Each structure stands twice: as structure tokens, then as C-alpha cells.
């Protein structure tokens, strides 16, 4: 049982502050890899919550492999987000306030493949085009890092 699963057995779906990382992966054309999530059926970045004893960069590396079967030679820290804008309510009712480190994966090795039950599909998106059914946290991250502009 993972750390967050253990917390949920005690606290139920009440809001938790969760620390984690997301990983931005780009192909040669500059398109970004996103995964279609099984829980919300929208498109989100690769990433997830930190486990006990992990660093934020180790979380990014683990999530990149667990969710997409990829490894990176290095990670570049872009920024850290927190606060009210990082609130999320999962479809099953669990509530969280994310503290999220955003990394760019460099020197990525491998071909993207679904490795766990969190994703239905992996696809590269041209960020100059609208992304259908984008996850709200992903939209916030990409907009506030300057990777996409949201329509007015």
C-alpha cells in the first residue's frame, strides 16, 4: 500500500496537501507528450505524487518510467506551483492541493508506452494547436509556464 493510499484510509476524501512532480517530454518536432488519464478521461502531463524518501527529481524519473516507459538523461527544473490554483477534485471525490515541481526531461530514451493503469493512451501534441479535453491542472501548468496560451 502506498503512502497516499494509507493516508486516504485514515482521512477519507478530505483535502490533502500532496507534493509531486510532473514531467514535460518533447519530441524532435517540439510536440509535448501527454497521457489520456483513466480516472478523468482527459489529457494530462506525466507525473504524480512523491513517495516517502524520494526527492522531487526522483519522483519525476519514477513517474516518467511508470507511466510512459521512458528514461531521461537529465531533468531541468522549470518551476514549482502551489496554492489555490492547484486544487483538484478527482472524479471519485478525493480532494487535493498540489505542490508540484515541473521538470523538462532531457535526452529522453525509449518509445512511449503505457506501463500502468493510470493512462489509456500516450500522444504527442502540437502546443500551437488547442488540446481537446485537457486536464485543468495541466492547462494551468502549461499556461503559466508559457507553453500554451489559453483562449480568452
From TrEMBL:
Pfam families the UniProt entry points to: NUDIX
Names of the cofactor(s): Mg(2+)
Domain of life the protein comes from: Bacteria
Domain Nudix hydrolase residue range list: 15-150
Keyword terms of this UniProt record: Hydrolase
Family: Belongs to the Nudix hydrolase family.
Name of the protein: 8-oxo-dGTP pyrophosphatase MutT (NUDIX family)
Amino acid at each position: 500500500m502506498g503512502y497516499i493510499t494509507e493516508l486516504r484510509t485514515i482521512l477519507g476524501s478530505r483535502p490533502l496537501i500532496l507534493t509531486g512532480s510532473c514531467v514535460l517530454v518533447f519530441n524532435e518536432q517540439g510536440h509535448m507528450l501527454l497521457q489520456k488519464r483513466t480516472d478523468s478521461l482527459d489529457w494530462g502531463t506525466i507525473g504524480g505524487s512523491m513517495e516517502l524518501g524520494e526527492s522531487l527529481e526522483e519522483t519525476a524519473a519514477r513517474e516518467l518510467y511508470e507511466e510512459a516507459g521512458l528514461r531521461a538523461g537529465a531533468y531541468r527544473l522549470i518551476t514549482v506551483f502551489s496554492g489555490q490554483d492547484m486544487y483538484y477534485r478527482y472524479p471519485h471525490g478525493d480532494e487535493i492541493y498540489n505542490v508540484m515541481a515541473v521538470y523538462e526531461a532531457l535526452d529522453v530514451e525509449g518509445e512511449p508506452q503505457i506501463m500502468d493503469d493510470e493512462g489509456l493512451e500516450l500522444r504527442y501534441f502540437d502546443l500551437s494547436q488547442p488540446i481537446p479535453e485537457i486536464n485543468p491542472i495541466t492547462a494551468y501548468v502549461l499556461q503559466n509556464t508559457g507553453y500554451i496560451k489559453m483562449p480568452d
